[in-house]
Amino acid sequence: MKIYTRTGDKGTTSLVGGTRAAKNDPRIEAYGTVDELMAHVGYLHDLLAADAEGIRSELEWVLDRLMSGASLLASEDTMLEKLPQLYAEDVTRLERAIDRLQEGLPELRHFTLPCGHPMLSYCHVCRTACRRAERRIVTAAEHYPTVPDVVRQYVNRLSDYFYALGRRLGYDYGAEDVRWEPKTPGQQ
CATH number for the 23-175 domain, one of 1.10.3720.10, 1.20.1200.10, 3.40.47.10, 3.40.50.150? Predict the structure, then answer.
């Protein structure tokens, strides 16, 4: 099977179900941004050492759930029930993972900068890509009210997960939170 079809050469693409949509349609923007997020998550997964197998496994689950969310965003309304779904239980599972990641970490009492260790920093790349995907999903839902709320909820919670994961990995790698201390003119 060829990976190119030439059907998108004029600026449209197919939704699940066959309807053509402009490549700048809010649904396409939303699932395209989720796809971009998935690439970042996959890269983070591959950067993690073998001793982080529990986190790698968790990220594989995240990728599966994101693929389900993207398919819901990429679908005609009539196809939604026939596709893999996201569930409220998926959001709850993320919340439990966030709580677990934060166990034993120093309490946050200030804003932190997204640096300190490459793994921590890349979690912030995932977090901010997640926030961008969430904004695109909100826009898509404004235009297409059948976009399931749970897709937005999952991606919203997922950005919190990446923040917690970054802190956990930074802590585990011996990197302290880099506190944001606003500079005044003349300060280095």
Answer: 1.20.1200.10
| 121-175 pLDDT, tens digit each | 999 999 999 999 999 999 999 999 989 999 999 999 999 999 999 999 999 999 9
Q: The tokens 């749970």 sit on which residue?
A: 150
**Number of other CB atoms surrounding residue 168 within 10 Å:** 21
Question: What's the CA gap between 78 and 13, in Å, rounded?
Answer: 17
- For the chain, the domains span 23-175
- Assign 41 to helix, strand or coil: helix
User: What is the end-to-end Cα distance of the chain in Å, rounded?
Assistant: 57
Which residue matches tokens 């998108």? 8
Closest CA to 102 of 52, 57, 163: 163
- Please, are residues 44 and 126 in contact by the beta-carbon 8 Å criterion? yes
| 149-to-85, 153, 159 alpha-carbon distances in Å | 12, 6, 16
- Best CA proximity match to 152, nearest among 136, 130, 137: 137
